[in-house]
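Summary of Year 1 activities. Much of the first year was spent building the evaluation harness for sequence design. The harness presents a backbone, in tokenized form, and records the residue chosen at every position. We chose the following record to illustrate the format because it has been used consistently in internal testing since the harness was completed.
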């Protein structure tokens, strides 16, 4: 640990070289979120999200909660930055994945605050993990490398079901904690479309890599899940918009009737 502390600038640079894709997504998140949330809230989201994810990662490698028991191999310990036994880059992925899920959630529901967007953020995060974690446990087949393993591999392509429950909990906590913190200081938000684009770029990149390593069954499962998610989200959004138009039309008719009555 003392060696890591002394050489952390070098190890951080090594993290950038080993995990450039994480920092490309992180940079995209920062640009999109600053335009959407403002720079202060973006940094708040990033710091809070990293902290929540780190605690979840640390606890899971000790007692198996909330992701299930797994261990980092430590093969890259001398080449990238670790915080205790957890690679620095790993919790860093959760804030931008949670933000992308939150953007899709608020677009779907037509609301940005309350328990419903936070819960849907957790669900959409969990569905992202349908394609992320099964690919990650096959890291030796691509440039990620074998950086971790589950003590008891699960039934879904080597991933335990508890891991998906953990992703839901972490996504819900990141979004819910953020919304609670800013709830008393509401501000106008930007467009969620950039975050939605980020969500689907992550999905497509993971599906592409899954196909590239030849995991056809896993690829098929991921495609089926996310085509279904897209159709359900789109249908829910279309229904919400139609209902909104109906409510506005009904309200307009009531105003017209009241106005006519008064005039008479």
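For this record, the design step produced the sequence shown next.
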């Amino acid at each position: 640990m003392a060696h890591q502390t002394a050489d952390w600038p070098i190890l951080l640079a090594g993290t950038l070289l080993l995990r450039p894709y994480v920092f490309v997504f992180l940079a995209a998140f920062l640009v999109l979120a600053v335009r959407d949330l403002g720079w202060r809230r973006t940094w708040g989201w990033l710091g809070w999200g990293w902290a929540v994810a780190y605690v979840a990662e640390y606890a899971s490698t000790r007692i198996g909660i909330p992701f299930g028991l797994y261990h980092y191999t430590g093969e890259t310990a001398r080449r990238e930055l670790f915080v205790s036994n957890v690679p620095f880059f790993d919790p860093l992925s959760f804030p931008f994945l949670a933000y992308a899920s939150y953007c899709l959630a608020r677009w779907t529901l037509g609301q940005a605050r309350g328990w419903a967007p936070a819960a849907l953020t957790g669900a959409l995060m969990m569905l992202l993990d349908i394609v992320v974690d099964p690919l990650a446990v096959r890291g030796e087949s691509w440039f990620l490398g074998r950086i971790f393993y589950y003590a008891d591999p699960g039934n879904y392509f080597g991933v335990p079901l508890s891991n998906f429950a953990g992703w839901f909990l972490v996504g819900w906590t990141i979004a819910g904690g953020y919304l609670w913190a800013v709830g008393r200081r509401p501000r106008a938000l930007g467009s969620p479309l950039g975050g939605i684009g980020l969500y689907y770029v992550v999905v497509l990149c993971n599906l592409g890599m899954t196909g590239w390593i030849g995991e056809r069954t896993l690829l098929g499962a991921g495609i089926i899940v996310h085509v279904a998610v897209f159709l359900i989200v789109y249908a829910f959004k279309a229904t919400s918009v139609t209902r909104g138009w109906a409510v506005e039309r009904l309200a307009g008719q009531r105003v017209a009737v009241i106005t006519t009555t008064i005039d008479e």
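The first strand starts at residue 70 and ends at 72. Quantitative recovery figures across the full test set are reported in Table 2.
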